[in-house]
Amino acid sequence: MRAGILIPPAHRPAELVMHEDRLVKLEILAAEQERALGELSDQIALQWEQIERMQRKLDRLTERFLALEERTAPEIPVSKPPHW
């Protein structure tokens, strides 16, 4: 293809047409991959938010469990074992 002059597809050399077809296929593939990456990125962001919420909930439940455990644990006197 010469600069500034468009050659009709019927008059283009077969090699040039093959390169153009290959370029179009690569552009389509790149666009599809860009879309897929965007969707994956969105999903990762949503999952990260969910993980953060679950971590906060786990932290609160752990604190509650430890508080309950402290209140219900019997007081064991600290003494030397009998074999001392």
Task: Provide an overview of this structure.
The chain has 84 residues and is mostly helical. The longest helix is centred in the middle third of the chain and has 59 residues, at 14-72. It is built from 1 helix and no strands. The radius of gyration is 34 Å and the shape is rod-shaped.
Structure characteristics:
84 residues, rod-shaped, 1 helix, mainly alpha
Structure described in brief:
70% of the residues lie in helices and 0% in strands. By secondary structure, it is mostly helical.
CA-based gyration radius:
34 Å
User: Which stretches are low in confidence, meaning pLDDT under 50 for 5 or more residues running?
Assistant: none
Multimer state: single chain
How many separate domains make up the residues?
A: 1
How far is the first residue's CA from the last residue's CA?
A: 99 Å
| Number of beta-strand segments | 0
The coarse overall form would be rod-shaped
Q: Enumerate how many helices there are, as a single number.
A: 1
Strand content: under 5%
H-E order = H
Mean pLDDT: 86
How much helix is in the residues?
over 70%
Largest sheet: none
Q: Assign the structural class, choosing from mainly alpha, mainly beta, alpha/beta, alpha+beta, or little secondary structure.
A: mainly alpha
